[in-house]
Design a protein that fits this description.
By secondary structure, the protein is an all-alpha fold. Helices cover about 75% and strands about 0% of the residues. Helix 2 packs antiparallel against helix 8, helix 4 runs antiparallel to helix 6 and helix 14 runs antiparallel to helix 15.
């Protein structure tokens, strides 16, 4: 008999846990809806007579910023509710909110309506990933939870690939209907999934008056917790710099600046980036389990991402569109530490603040795109698009490196602990 077989079967059983499977499907729908606007942005703006916004307008006219503003608020709201009411209860609420908002988005007819619905959808989309990762991390064994969260993220980011592919064959209004219907179907699948035992234990402890649950401000009233929180957000900054600046603006800003041969389609660029991210998330999960280190793995992926961004901004002059697509795919691979990023955020905090941190941290990283977009627009008004992107890239990667150095290693730590007030 193969002595490794029992362990392999045990790992397979853990990965086939209903929470992992439903969590992966949930994140698939979440990412489909999250990236939907990026893939249909140009098409929808043209149809609505807002084509002038494709190249950019005033800061308040950036629809992606409206969505990210909603995610900032939703990250705080659903994070707090996740620690107070339970991970599952908030997942139900978030799915329902963003599904209905996306269905309504299919019938929008003005900029104001579009912005309002992207904002509402953003609030709902914020609740999925953090609650799901916290639930998976608390359910699987400490030695293997990295595999579970990597699988959830890898399946999830395929939602962006699907959104990019659908954007090329389906009308943008139909795409929003598909996203909303997928969310409502997921709502039915979630029925029957159980809450984590660690949450019930934390709830019982808090009811005795020892600790509070879901207190967002508790993340800031203690120096050590504040630094942990800020560092968790910091390591996620390069991801949304890459997606929101380099990839989303590839066709409108960078392809013309670098004299790329052939048309660059935004939806295809986004799909290829997330396809790379899918493989990267799987790879980072396996590598972190092999090295038994979250920090070393993230450091390696940050180096790859930095090299890709440098090649994009300094070495792509005169390339063909297919060469640029290939680089964007590799950039996605380099950014494949997103699952580890959220897992680290969940592992850095006790059970009574875990959902609050794991939900708000990635949404604050996503929300950084509001500042990045505003800064890029301001810099691009004075310098070229590549120069503006270089300034922002140096800033984001520097902050990520410093943040990673300050974070403690969390591989295999026991998550059964509480943050005291």
């Amino acid at each position: 008999m193969n002595p490794a077989a029992p362990a392999e079967r045990s790992l397979l059983r853990e990965l086939l846990h209903p929470i992992v499977i439903v969590g992966a499907l949930g994140y698939f729908v979440d990412i489909y809806d999250l990236t939907l606007f990026m893939t249909v942005r140009d098409q929808s703006l043209r149809d609505l007579g807002l084509e002038y916004l494709i190249k950019g307008g005033a800061w308040y006219q950036d629809l992606m910023s409206w969505q990210m503003a909603g995610m900032l608020i939703g990250g705080i709201l659903f994070g707090m509710l996740g620690d107070r009411l339970g991970r599952l209860a908030t997942l139900f609420g978030s799915i329902l909110l963003y599904s209905l908002a996306n269905l309504a988005n299919a019938y929008v007819g003005s900029f104001e309506g579009y912005a309002a619905l992207r904002f509402i959808s953003g609030i709902g989309l914020a609740g999925e990933l953090g609650g799901c990762i916290a639930l998976v991390a608390e359910t699987l064994s400490r030695e293997r939870r990295g595999y579970g969260t990597a699988l959830v993220a890898a399946v999830g980011v395929m939602g962006a690939v699907a959104a990019g592919a659908m954007a090329e064959v389906v009308h943008w209004r139909t795409n929003y209907i598909i996203g909303g219907v997928l969310g409502l179907c997921l709502l039915v699948l979630r029925i029957g999934v159980r809450e984590s035992a660690l949450f019930h234990k934390a709830r019982d402890t808090s009811e005795s008056g020892t600790v509070s649950r879901g207190n967002f401000f508790a993340l800031f009233n203690h120096r050590d917790r504040l630094l942990r929180y800020l560092c968790c957000v910091g390591i996620g900054l390069p991801t949304w710099y890459t997606i929101g600046i380099l990839v989303q603006r590839a066709s409108s800003h960078f392809a013309p600046a670098f004299h790329i041969e052939g048309a660059v389609i935004t939806s295809r660029a986004v799909a290829l980036f997330y396809l790379g991210l899918t493989f990267g998330d799987l790879g980072s999960g396996v590598i972190s389990q092999t090295l038994r280190s979250r920090r070393k793995t993230v450091a390696g992926f940050l180096v790859v991402s930095l090299l890709c961004a440098a090649l994009y901004l300094f070495g792509s002059e005169g390339w063909t569109n297919n060469q640029l697509y290939a680089l964007i795919f590799v950039m996605g691979l380099g950014m494949g530490y997103w699952a580890l990023f959220v897992t680290i955020a969940a592992e850095q905090f006790g059970t009574n603040l875990r959902a609050t941190a794991a939900t708000s941290v990635p949404n604050f990283a996503r929300g950084s795109l509001i500042l990045l977009t505003a800064a890029f627009t301001w810099l691009n008004g004075r310098y070229s698009a590549p120069t503006a992107a270089i300034v922002l890239g140096v800033t984001c990667f520097f902050l990520a490196g410093i943040s990673l150095l300050r974070l403690r290693e969390t591989f295999g730590i026991d998550l059964d602990y509480l943050e005291r007030d």
